[in-house]
Amino acid sequence: MTAQRETIEEKQKKSSKTKERQFKGLSLTERKQARREKLIEAGIEAYGTHGFFAVTVKDICNEAKLTERYFYESFKKSEDLFQTIFLKLIDQLQHNVMQAIMQASTDPKKMIEDGLTALLTTLKENPHMARIIYIDAMLVQELHNQATIHETMTRFDRMIQAFVMLMMPHLDRSEHEISLVATGLNGYVTQIAIRWVVNDFNQSMEDVLSSCSIVFLSLLNTFSEKEKKIKKEDSSL
């Protein structure tokens, strides 16, 4: 009887501990993830408003309404949080651009316009994102040390390469050549975007879109003319 009572008491204690681990219906792991998301959102707000170098861990925690011990529960240092935020925002930006391109008509000029419009619209509607990606990220040495910036630029190179091949599926150019062209296009648009963001979007989106489009349209015309010339020479043989 005594043993049975002890077994019941042990079960009650275990049940009590299980309930203690649940708080507002969330497990310990879920609460930790929720705190991490709060820190990320706070980081986007703080870094996007004041810049990485003007924000401390304490500032982030105040914004997130969490104590500093919870910051170090998820991140070792500010640079780790910033890197997480940077990659999250890059994913969002790339998704928006790719979605616009895939939903566009098969007309290459329309694809160029829709893809670049999605990029510029996303930046203008999300100034915190724009600042973090195109200003602060270029200055945070940790991102360069870990090759995060290089890897991100390479991702956009590949996206533009896929875009070029989608626009001109019958293009008679080597993959290596298209890859180099994509890198050039990426750098061109990146520098225009940086200038636009640094100047607080003071130029109209129409002007910036036109400037970004010029090189893509020139490429399209150049490759199209060469393609026509090759077809003409083949047909004359």
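The above is record 1. Record 2 follows with the same two-line structure.
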Amino acid sequence: MVIVYALFIAVVVGLVGLAACVRVVQQFERGVVFRFGRVRPVVRGPGIALLMPIADRLQKVNLQIITMPVPAQDGITRDNVTVRVDAVVYFSVIDPVRAAVDVQDYVSAIGQVAQTSLRSIIGKSDLDDLLSNRERLNQGMELMIDSPALDWGVHIERVEIKDVALPETMKRSMSRQAEAERERRARIITADGELQASEKLGQAAEVMTEHPAALQLRLLQTVVEVAAEKNSTLVLPFPVELLRFLERSTPPENSRSSDADKPATTRDDDESLERSDSPPELTTESHVSAGAAVTTAPLSAGSAQPQWGGLPAGCADPAWQP
């Protein structure tokens, strides 16, 4: 009976030891064996891995591509614009021994390097590069992360900038800029169209000048187009040459009579204005015989009496009349 118990205990201990010595490695994993704390150079592949009890310890390393989102980072671009950028990093382990020995947690290490690299890329780039030239920035960020990751046995497969968040004021400014650019292009296209149309019209005018009948045909075509619609518009063609002929044949207006009458009227008006503006004065007149001079002088209070023909003012003269 004691022998049976001993055999039973030996079988149990053997099974437990066998279970501790046998490990299963998946297809996407590799096993790094530590014997008494020293890493073994041989990496165990997928399948069953046999270990020495108590002496060996197996650490599995995942070789699949790991997708790690990079938290959004606030930064200021080279042209002094505040932005918020986030990204995603794809990486995988290419050296299981170095990934298990050289770094404690390679996933966390890659995450920290990705954050610092993203901030560095933001500070070195312009806003236009972040919005339109992301391929070059992705490649630069991939090189910045891959340089220290190779020492850890990790390879960076791809880096992508996901989103660039801009302030609301910057969004409004960019929308106004885009609208102004579209308006400028529209005006340039319109001006080019007008230039080409003017050139064609100039060529058409030269052809019509050489062939006058073409102008008449164009006029008739216009009349036909107007008459095609049901309207009450009446078109009467009137040649421009007839207007020019009438303008040349009209005699100029006779302005001599008007110029001659204008000074006389002016003199009469000036005399009437002087008479209306001057104060009333007392005048005396002396009529003498034929050939005698007529003298007119104003009388004012306290002034000397005038003389007529050498006689004082009080002399009786039959020819004098007040």
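The chain has nine helices and ten strands.
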